[in-house]
Amino acid sequence: MLAKNIFGYQTEEIKTKFQAVTEDGFKPTLAIVFCSVVQDRNELIAFFSAQNVDIFGATTAGEILDNEVTEKSIVVMLLDIKKAHYRLLMQDTTHSSTYEACSNLADIAQKTYHHPSLIVVSSGLTIDGEHIVKGVCDTAPDIPLYGGLAGDDLTMKATFVFSAEGEYSNAILCLIIDGDKINVQGLATSGWDSIGIEKTITKSEGNVVYTIDDEPAVDVFIKYFEFKGYVDNRPEVVAMNFAQYPLQLTKENGNVVLRSPMMADGENRSLIFGGGIPQGSKVKFSVPPGFELVDNTTNEISSLKTTIPAADAIIMFSCKARHLALGPMTSTEAEQIRAIWDKPLIGFFTYGEIGHSKNSFCDFHNETCSMVILKEKN
Amino acid sequence: MEALVKLIMKLDISEEDRLLLLKEIKSVKKQLEIAEFKYLRTLMDKNAITNVLNNTISELEQKKLLIENARNEITENMLALDEQNRVIAIKNEALNKTILKLKATQNQLIQSEKMASLGEVTAGIAHEIQNPLNFVNNFSELSKELIVEMNEELAVGNWQLAKEIAGDVEQNLEKINHHGKRAADIVKGMLQHSRTSSGQKEPTDINALADEYLRLAYHGLRAKDKSFNADFKTDFEPNLPKINVIPQDIGRVLLNLINNAFYAVTEQSKLFQSSELWKSYQPLVAVSTIKLDDRIQISVKDNGHGIPPNILDKIYHPFFTTKPTGQGTGLGLSLSYDIAKAHGGELRVETKEGEGTIFTIEVPVT
Asked: pLDDT tier at B114 (50, 70, 90 boundaries)?
């Protein structure tokens, strides 16, 4: 399986580069497209459909292609994967629950292949990524599951996923891969350190936290970080400033996950997190790791080489908060990870990641870098 | 940086060198960016971590304060408790003294109860002693006469007859000795009864004990009150084994029950005196023993007036009595009940008003 990456700030640029990379007879069947919300997705859909290329697309909070990290751009990975080895499914969740939709996806996946692997991207700002994991894992606990939540450059207005069927602001786009034909491996790494004393979530509903130790959630963050720039009804301000300081949550099954505050409700002073935090759970604040994080992440992901020594393509779902915390070093990170297998890498900065970290089950995360490595079997 | 790039473009160098220079400049630019970012982020994180730690410290200090307050409160409570304990200890001491006093009083009461019951049987004892004393007196006088006779026969040299008389005297002396011992036994029994219980259990013939106290009680009442008229009968199990009891204690129980029974039939007689029923009423106290599997049952039955239901639950209460003032201590049944319990046995009552009462003591054989 061959993978070729193309990059552009305009659709025209993509069209031109597509012609260039297919001149040698390369016949891609699938395009993985990650782009900023400023880009016209429908134009991209029309173009790739005209080329008879399937699309697995999501909007982002920053794009990653090979060694480069960009914003407001379009990144595309073209794959000549056999049509029989994958299946694309769009599940609109406007009128159904995320859990049901994902349960349905898992069911279809099991019926399509003996050993399916799932890569999902999801749109919807208020979606609880936890429901995606639960929906899939309750139906098919053994299916490998990876992915990320689409972004919108931190404007917090709307995120989208798109395929040949069109673009959706409340949907889950799923790439089902035949695991017997293509080896799919992945790992999510974090590195954030907890700080301070344990706190109790005294009132919450799904991913909305109302009070921490009986104090309004927004006030707790403002107090603890002595943040002076808080402006009511400016949710993006919260995401920009607090996302790097997520809550560390130890779940009932022992998984430790991070939950980033995404938006604030100025009226009831609650915080909407990137994932569910059950009422009564114990949390700690956490702070970004030191700059050695880049090397640590690379080392941890290198360990995947034992299960997948060679690769055809690499997909990276990296939390937007990591981008904020690592700044220009995110490109160094991408560069180092790409160098492990020395193959094309595509990715984007997400509002939440799905994958399993070392020694734990698949889960929904914030603040992680969730990698997926693909290799066609002989 | 842009100016630098423009400058390089103007330089008269080979294209290869120009590209190399531009690449180097790009790399330096990125390193500068990273350094600047690291500086800013370090600054930001430093602030954030300092703030979180400061807040955590003040929160911990607040918690510490709360814990200290709680500890102080606990200490105060403990002091208050100590004070309460001290007061309680003083009260306890006072209570203990009172209990000791009460115990002493109780012992005195038990002793007076013994003496009271002794008083009731004194007349019986006197009667019992009178019999052997009569024998002793009669036989000693008879022996005195016989010795006079014997001396006369010896004086006339009638040895054979003198020897025969001496034989009679010897027999008489044996009888005197026998009756003297009997009197001594009765006195010994009386002393035992009044003595504080030694608490020593010993194998005891219950039939003999019951018989002795029945007769003591009967004769005692007869001696005290000439008009006293009642029958008694016994129905003893013939092969009753000896059982291990404190004989004085069980004796006192029996004496109490028998005295009560005689008192009940006497009261009934008095009640019937004015009516026609007097002629047909036969006052009777019956004492019986019976052996069950592993227990011995002693019953004292009377055909007296019975115990009214409204006082039945009070009869074992200390100081409860229906007898006129001065005639009963109210401790008899209470002590009897305690003695039966102390022997691992029990004291039961069956009664029917107007028909009579049966008190039963059950004591285990072993």
From this structure: low
Interface with A, mutate which of B39, B50, B59 (most A CBs under 10 A): B59
Let me know if residue B298 belongs to a domain: yes
Calculate mean pLDDT across residues B114-123: 65
Residue B2 distance to chain A (closest CA, Å): 19
Rounded Cα–Cα distance for residues B3 and B25 (Å) = 12
- A→B contacts (Cβ < 8 Å), by residue, are 195-197, 223-226, 245, 285, 287-288, 291, 325, 327-329, 332
Query: Could you say which of A197, A287, A332 has the minimum Cβ distance to residue B48?
Result: A287
CB A53 within 8 A of CB A78: yes
The correct CATH number of A193-287 out of 1.25.40, 3.90.1720, 3.40.50, 2.40.10 is 2.40.10
Is the model's pLDDT at B93 over the cut of 80? yes
Summarize the confidence of residues A203-208 as an average pLDDT.
Answer: 91
ipTM exceeding the 0.85 mark = no
For residue A224, name the pLDDT band (cuts at 50, 70, 90).
confident
CA distance B63 to chain A (A): 11
Q: Chain B contacts of A224, Cβ < 8 Å?
A: 51-52, 55
Q: Which residues of B touch A285 (CB under 8 A)?
A: 52
Residues 6+ apart with CB under 8 A from B51: A224, A225, A226
Q: Which of B33, B38, B51 has the CB atom closest to A224's CB atom?
A: B51
Question: Model-level pTM greater than 0.80?
Answer: no
- Let me know if residue B294 belongs to a domain: yes
pLDDT in tens, B131-178: 788 888 888 898 899 999 999 999 998 899 999 999 999 998 998 998
CB under 8 Å to A329, separation ≥6 — which residues?
A291, A294, B34, B37
pLDDT 10s digits, A334-377: 999 999 999 999 999 999 999 988 777 888 888 889 999 999 99
Our count of domains for chain B comes to 1
Q: State mean pLDDT over A101-127.
A: 93
Tell whether B98 is covered by a domain. no
Locate the domains of chain A by residue range. 3-189+291-376, 193-287
**Domain boundaries, position B206:** 200-366
Q: What mean pLDDT do residues B239-255 have?
A: 88
Whether residue B350 lies inside any domain: the answer is yes
Nearest by CB to B45, from A196, A288, A329: name it.
A288
User: Mind giving me the DSSP string for B57-100?
Assistant: HHHHHHHHHHHHHHHHHHHHHHHHHHHHHHHHHHHHHHHHHHHH
Tell me the average pLDDT across A224-243: 66
- Per-residue model confidence (pLDDT) at position B103: 87
CATH number of residue B331's parent domain: 3.30.565.10
CB contact under 8 A, A197 and B55: no
What is the C-alpha R_g of chain B? Answer: 51
Confidence of residue A102 (pLDDT cuts 50, 70, 90): very high
| Alpha carbons B7 and B4: distance in angstroms, whole number | 5
Considering chain A, what is the average pLDDT of its residues? 90
Check whether B201 has a pLDDT greater than 90.
no
Nearest to B52 among A195, A329, A332 (CB): A195
Chain A residues with CB inside 8 Å of B30's CB?
Answer: 328
Interface test with A, best of B27, B50, B55 (most A CBs within 10 A): B55
What is the distance in angstroms between the CA of the first residue and the CA of the last residue of chain B? 116
Query: How many angstroms separate the Cα of B292 from the Cα of each of B237, B239, B363?
Result: 11, 12, 10
* Closest CA relative to residue A283, chosen from A351, A218, A352, A198: A198
C-beta atoms of A325 and B41 within 8 A: yes
